[in-house]
Design brief:
Belongs to the PEP-utilizing enzyme family. Helix content is about 45%, strand content about 15%. By secondary structure, the chain is of the alpha/beta class. The strands form 2 sheets. It has an 8-stranded mixed β-sheet. An 8-stranded parallel β-sheet has the order 15-14-13-12-11-10-9-16. The structure holds phosphoenolpyruvate and magnesium ion (MG).
């Protein structure tokens, strides 16, 4: 039966494919297609993992102390029975043989099917056996990942290979962490749907950077959509259509093709300079999350990197943070890839909806009812970890010996933070000089993303070379709306007069002092905002590389003399 779900659009376009349901804890299971010739070997790998777990459980049972409760032995029996059940074994083999899924993927796909059947059971005792099934599958997945011959995980992220083409998949999950979302680059998925998340949550931002249609905040999606359902994602409207009729499917296939043609057409603007009709040059920069994204930035015609979110280097590493050398290589890689264009490297911004690890201090705080968006985030965390911070500063400074680098500091609000940060930068430079390590001229900039900073922007202009306005957070903190919470997403409004007022104030102040100012929040890539920002005097925009061509077209068609800082029918108090 066809039905529709409404969520929040985060990445434009149309995706059509079969649903792949993944629970949050299993998002990082390896997903890849195997060659037909590998089917037998993959089934054998699964069999060996199962035998190993059965043996483990039987040994455990044999060695149970005499006074162990009888239920324990019965429980182990249940686990062995589940492992040998055809519903798990035969069906999992079928996913491998017919769909060419690797063993881990097949196993987690079958678990989702069975878990749903357990959920629907009337009998409470049977319903509760779902937890046993999950434990057994977790065990199997662990054995497989510990050398069951699979490719396993790379750098804590899911390992995915290119889709075989005829079987497009759409990932449906309750939630996906920003780091796991990042792992889906070059993946088999052609779209994403999540139950939770706001349009500027970091998960949504990463989804957008993957340039594939996505809908977040679709509430019950992962409960209502079944494994393998055909679904259409309308990434412009935030709509998910499950089991679409042939007519609807045809309509969306047509829109998909039109979108591809439009992208191709816009791609031809790559070498055209972004200048308005009245001759105002506009700088279009790229936001990147990994060093390897620099390629996409160049391909899109970016004039540099306006925001390198370095925190993605720090995530999912089980507490082992990247050292100075590793960071230096990553930053230098991005600088070299940008071929002489400037690269703005932001110091680490973890916290809030970007936890370092899956169970991090930030999540623990959240569980305790504390709000991580107002906690030890970004520069606050860096200043609380001075040796980590100095390492990062040294790595960024060293990268500047290989090309133009601008250093950017997130979430500053206090005079004391400004002073301490600038002292730390001086100290890092001194350490490099003492060690005889080279660094170049580096401009230092501040992100203006807390209302306090916006209101005292003059103090920032006194101390910094440039400003970058982080509107994602500026909106969040001005309106007291958690950007990652879909329950209040309807109140997350960058058009709010208070936000526009702050934006205008910052841009005007920077221009008056002759200092460069850029917007690098999501509104920079939103063509509905371009005229208002140009009217405010903004001439530098940083966004996902995929948004650059459409924004350039908008700039080329705009006459700044006709732009107004007023949005039709909503005014800006000024
Ligand atoms: C912002 O807040 O607008 C920004 C660019 O930074 P981030 O989205 O990484 O918080
Ligand atoms: Mg921010």
């Amino acid at each position: 039966m066809s039905f529709q779900l409404f969520g929040l659009p985060v990445a434009r376009g149309v995706a059509i494919g079969r649903a792949l349901l993944v629970s949050s804890s299993r998002v990082d299971v390896a997903h890849y297609y195997i060659e037909p010739a590998q089917i037998e070997a993959e089934i054998q790998r699964l069999r060996m993992a199962r035998d190993a777990v059965v043996e483990e459980l039987e040994t455990l049972q044999r060695e149970l102390p005499g006074d162990a409760p009888a239920e324990l032995s019965a429980l182990l029996d249940v686990h062995v029975m589940l492992l040998q059940d055809e519903l798990l074994g035969a069906a999992t083999k079928q996913w491998i043989a017919e769909r060419h899924y690797n063993a881990e993927w097949a196993l987690s796909a079958q678990l989702e099917v069975l878990a749903r059947q357990f959920d629907e059971m009337e009998d409470e005792y049977l319903r509760e056996r779902k937890a046993d099934l999950e434990q057994v599958v977790e065990r199997l997945l662990l054995v497989l990942s510990e050398g069951g011959g699979g490719r396993g995980r790379a750098g804590g992220l899911p390992q995915l290979s290119a889709a075989t083409g005829d079987n497009p998949l759409i990932l449906v999950a309750n939630d996906i962490s920003p780091a796991d979302m990042l792992g889906f680059r070059r993946s088999v998925f052609t779209g994403f749907v999540t139950d939770v998340g706001g349009p500027t949550s970091h998960t949504a931002i990463v989804a957008r950077s993957l340039n594939i249609p996505a809908v977040v905040g679709a509430r019950e999606a992962s409960r209502l959509i079944r494994q393998d359902d055909w679904i259409v994602i309308d990434g412009d409207a935030g709509l998910v259509i499950v089991d679409p009729s042939p007519i609807v499917l045809e309509e969306y296939r047509f829109r998909q093709r039109s979108g591809e043609l439009e992208r191709e057409r816009l791609g031809r603007l790559r070498h055209t300079p972004a200048v308005t009709l009245d001759g105002e040059p506009v700088e279009l920069l790229a936001n990147i999350e990994l060093q390897s994204d620099a390629e996409a930035a160049i391909a899109a015609g970016a004039q540099g990197v306006g925001l390198f979110r370095t925190e993605f280097l720090f995530m999912n590493r089980n507490g082992e943070l990247p050292g100075e050398e590793e960071q230096f290589e990553a930053y230098r890689g991005a600088v070299m890839a940008m071929q002489g264009l400037p690269v703005t490297i932001r110091t680490v911004d973890v916290g809030a909806d970007k936890p370092l690890d899956r169970l991090s201090i930030h999540e623990l705080r959240q569980e305790q009812g504390l709000n991580p968006a107002l906690g030890l985030r970004a520069i606050r965390w860096s200043l609380s970890e001075p040796s980590m911070f100095r390492q990062q500063l040294r790595a960024i400074l060293r990268a500047s010996a290989h090309g133009p680098v601008r250093l950017l500091i997130p979430m500053l609000a206090h005079e004391s933070e400004i002073r301490l940060t600038l002292e730390m930068i001086d100290r890092a430079k001194q350490q490099l000089r003492e060690a005889g390590l080279a660094y170049g001229e580096v401009q230092v900039g501040a992100m203006i993303e807390v209302p306090a900073a916006a209101l005292m922007v003059e103090a920032f202009l006194d101390r910094f070379d440039f400003l970058a306005i982080g509107t994602n957070d500026l909106v969040q903190y001005t309106l007291a709306i958690d950007r990652a919470d879909e329950a209040v997403a309807h109140l997350y409004d960058p058009w709010h007069p208070a936000v526009l007022h702050l934006l205008h104030h910052i841009i005007r102040a920077a221009r008056k002092r002759g200092k460069s100012v850029c917007v690098c929040g999501e509104i920079a890539g939103d063509i509905d905002f371009t005229e208002v920002l140009l009217a405010m005097g903004l001439r530098s925009f940083s966004m996902h590389p995929s948004q650059i061509p459409a924004l350039k077209q908008k700039v080329l068609r705009t006459d700044t003399r006709r732009c107004s800082v007023l949005r039709p029918a909503r005014g800006v108090p000024d």
